[in-house]
Design brief:
Length: 587
Amino acid sequence: MSGDWANKFGYYDMCLREEYHYSSVMIRQNPMTFFYGFCHTNICEADDFNQPDAQEIIKDKLGSSIVSQMLPINLGSASYLFANPVTHYPDFSVGAYSAVIIIFILFCLGLIDPYKRLLDALTNSEIKKPKGIIGDFSLIENYKKLMNLKTIDPNLAIFNGVRAIAFMMVVYGHSSLLIIQATFQTELLVALQSQRAIITVDMLYSVDIFFWLGGFFMAFVMCETKRAKALGKNPASLFLVILHRLLRIWPCYIICIMINSYILPYLGGGPRWWSAMNYTDCAAGAFRNLLFIDNFFHDWDLCFGWGWYLTSDIQLFIICLIPMTCYALGYKRISKYLITGMIISSVIYGIVLCFQYDFLIPAKVTGNQDFYYTYYVNSLARAPPYFFGLLMGMLYREFKQKEENCFLGLLHEKAKDPKFRLLFQITCYLLGFGIISWLVFGWKSAYLSPDPTYWSYWFQHLYSALCRLTFVFGVACLCLPNMIGIYDIFNRKAMNNSIFKFTAKISFACYLIHYMVLLILNYTFYITPTYITQDVIQLFVGCTVITMVAGVFLTLLVEMPFGTLQVKIIDSITKPRKQKQQVLLEQ
């Protein structure tokens, strides 16, 4: 009833029905980790195997066994951690009770308005639109807003598809990653030479798309004439801009961290579930995440590990307030030069890191232990797509405001000529799809080649530093025709369908939730998943559907209500000052 090989868990239920003990063990020797499940008599428990004398006996026996010679690690020097998956659950702490109470209160607030409407309907009374906090949290009112899929700016219709596809890339990439971490290592070594491994690595570009979108919409919003003038008159209002950003992120972020740390451990079971607790542990404290400084600590005490994106996004947002302030003060050309310099500087910084730490093409860099903290979550190293998006957002806002000598405005005027219009479309689409295709598939030969210098090391360093900015440049090429008013079936229909528009509206909530859903789906299986396309797609589809359902509730109960409240909070801070200024003008 025990597993017969590494990462196999035997017959878990049968073992327990026969009134034996079942133990799971994690065998770790960098850079590899194996899991194994075995059924044994009631004489011993998992804690007994963790005793020092038992550990020595186990290492001695396994180190001299035939199995040790067949596995790519030394079992005699590996570390062993045994656990009883039946009882390996954390105590239901104050944090868990708090999380349950908060979720219950949010549901109650959301259901007050539907309940009142139901009572009014039963008593034939007039159904009134709710006001105040009841209206802010009303599931009905927020659902109406959520389902309003009208395209506000037809020139940005393609962005709905870009955001939705980027989210799906995140889910697919993490689905593959979790299966890679849990599957049979011997089979994995073969699978990593396949096309699906290459596609998995390509999903890393999804975060760069989000960075590009973040920079774009930051500039698009802040360069609006009224906002820019208000900021120019009172630069101190930058603190309100930062507060507005934080209040938009914090509510959903706090709720999801609490669910991940205190609720998620009780939502799964089975021989493998205990190993998922590595993702729910928050030993170093959530304050690092909530202060957006978690990438400053290189201690691997990760709390809500996929939240690093929000940390980098906030840090880059604050950095970009410098050129935005210059723009608001009237130094528009200087701000553009400054952003251009920021792009060049961050690219050079990334190149230096890649040469210094020997970062090669993406698939070959994942085994480099310096890569995660030195580059992957390093905000300055990941900055080029964000800064590039900032510059594009600034140019697009000037185009929408019909400012003179605007680059996009000049393209728009030239696009009135049918010949130029067609040529511009073909050029942008060929360039965009060509760049993306080359970055997705072009490095396949260099990755699969047994010769590590198939691509020279210096070229691989440059590729590693430039590929992310180049990828979002390709995405920008695809968006450019739509941005200047050239509409076609691709940017107005295919990339702006109802599914993409809906997914784009809930993408923030879905990003926070998706990894928790993946943990439940992946680690509650009794049978070890196999890294084949079918298993990856099944996990991806299941996770996407469940995540979107959960994301709707998080959006309705947390993101939208607190989004309304934060607007009221900002207004309450700024209105007294406006009223005081109005009184002085009247006097």
